[in-house]
Amino acid sequence: MHPKRPALVFAERGTTLTYAELEQYSNAFAEELVSRGYREGDRVAYLGRNSDLYYPVLFGSIRAGVVLVPLNWRQSAGEIAYQLEDSGACWLLVDQELESLASEAVGQVAGTLPMMRIDGDDGDAEHLRARLRDNVSAPVRVAGHEAEQTVLQVYTSGTTGKAKGVLISHKSMSIARHAETISPDWANWIEGGISLSAMPNFHMGGMSWVMMGLVRLGTVIITADPQPSNMLRLMHEYGVEHSFIVPTVIRAIVDELKSSNSAVPGIKGIYYGAMPMSEMLLHEAMELFGSTCQFGHFFGMTELTGPATYLPPSEHDLKRPHLLKSVGRPIAGMSLEIRDPDGRVVPVGQPGEIWIKAPTLMQGYWRKPELTQEVVQDGWYATGDGGYLDENGFLFLTDRIKDMIVSGGENIYPIEVEEALLHHPAVLSAAVVGLPDDRWGESVVAVLELRPGLEVTAEDVRSVVRSRIAAYKCPKTILFDELPRTASGKVQRSKLRKQIIERKDAGA
C-alpha cells in the first residue's frame, strides 16, 4: 500500500527502513533461518538494544515458524544463560555492544550454541543488516500458520526466583495490536502518524508500541537512549505525535523542560504504563504539555500480551483528580473481576486479587504446566495484583498480592534478590521490600541479619549481589537489623516495611 513510506527509523544510526524494505528484510531473515536448517518450533534468541533490526528478525521468525526469544540485556550473564538453556535456543543473535555479555552467558550453557553479531561498523560479512539488504531475491513467505501457534517466548521474573517463559501466540499478538483501536480516543492517531519508541524491545510494552504504529501504517522512531535531552530532541526533529513513556522518563523530561526553559514539543499524545505515576507528576506533565496533548494510561502484563485496562484521555481530568489514581477500565474483549483468597467475587469497593479473562491470554509458561494451572483457571488469569473496582467499573490498584517490586518499569521479585544476598558468607537472613521512590516508582530495600561475630559493609554485600543478578535489582538501601517474624519464623514483610519507614522518619 505504501512501499516508500518510512516504517522504522533508528535514531542512533540515522537508518530508515521503508515498508518495502521491512518486507524485504523480513522475508530475507525468514529465508536465512530456513537455509540454516531451523524448523518450525525452534527457538532463536535475540540479545540487543533497541534498533530497527529487531523487527525484521521478529517478523522473519514468525514467517519461518520459528519462535523468537527476546532477552533482557540488563540481566547478568548467569540469568541470560539460564534463559538460553531453559528455552532450548539453537541460535543467539547479539549486537556488538553486548558481545562480551553474550559470550560470558554462552560459556555457561551446556553444549554448543552458535552466536552471530547483528550489527557493527567493521564491515564483517556476518552482519545481519548486510545480509538482509543484499538478499533481494528472498522468496515471499506468507504466514499461513495456525492462530494458536507460538510466535514469542518472553521471559518474565517469577516468585520462585527463576524467570518464566511466557508463550505468546499469533492470535494473541494480532488481537492485542488492534484492541486499542476500539477507543474513540485513538481517532487522533491518523494513518501515517509519527510515533516514538524508547521502551526496550524485549518488553511486551516496547514491542506493542512499535507494532501499534505499524498497524496504523505510521512511522516509528526507535531509540535506545531514553535520556530526556535525546527524547526531546527526537520529538522536535521528527515531529513526533505520540509516544509511550514510563513515568520515570516522564519525570526526567518534565524536569529537563523546566530547568532548561526549552520549547515544549507539540506532541499530541503521551501514553504511560509499566509502573504507577504519582498524581503530582501527572498534574505537572498535563499542565506543561497543555490541552493539545492527550494522556492515556495502560495497565497490563506479559501474560496478557500487553494492556488489559486503559484510562483514556477523556478521563484524565484535573477537575476529577480521584480518577487520575485509576488505571482505567478493561479494554474491548477483556473481563475483570476482584476476588477474595477463596476465589469468590467481592463487592464493589472492596479490595482483593485482580483476575482477568482475555482473548490475548498467554498459552502458558514454557515447560511449567503446574505453575500455569495455578494462575489460569477456566480461562481466567490470577494476576497476583491487588485492587478494587468503583461503582463505574474503574480499577484502582492497591498493595500487590505478590511481593513484586516495580522499579523504573522493571519487575523485581524479593526472593530473587534475597537469594543473591544470601551468597555473602556473612549474611544469615535477608528480606527485601519495595519502598516508594519519587524517581523510580519503588526502590529496593534489603534488611540483613548477620552471622554472629561477623561484620560487613553494605558495599561489600552489593559487590556479591551484582555478580549474581542484574544491577537494577540490587538494593539501593541495605540495612542491618533484626527481622520481624511470625511464630512459624516467616518474615512479616508488611511489618518490616513499616519498621523501615519509621526508622527513616526518625532519621536513623
Reported for the largest beta sheet, the result is: 9 strands, mixed
Task: Give the strand order, joined by hyphens, for the main sheet.
Answer: 2-1-10-9-11-12-13-14-15
What's the β-strand tally? 26
Rounded mean pLDDT is 90
Query: Total helix count?
Result: 14
Shape: globular
Structure explained in plain terms:
By secondary structure, this protein is an alpha/beta fold. It has helices at residues 19-35, 54-64, 77-87, 99-106, 128-134, 170-179, 204-215, 228-238, 247-260, 279-289, 369-375, 414-421, 458-466, 493-505; strands at residues 6-10, 15-18, 43-47, 67-70, 91-94, 115-117, 150-156, 164-169, 194-197, 219-222, 242-244, 269-272, 294-301, 306-311, 329-330, 335-339, 352-357, 364-365, 376-377, 380-389, 395-397, 405-407, 410-412, 427-437, 441-450, 477-480. The strands form six sheets. The protein has a nine-stranded mixed β-sheet, with helices on both faces. β9 (194-197), α7 (204-215) and β10 form a beta-alpha-beta unit. The chain is globular. The relative contact order is 0.09.
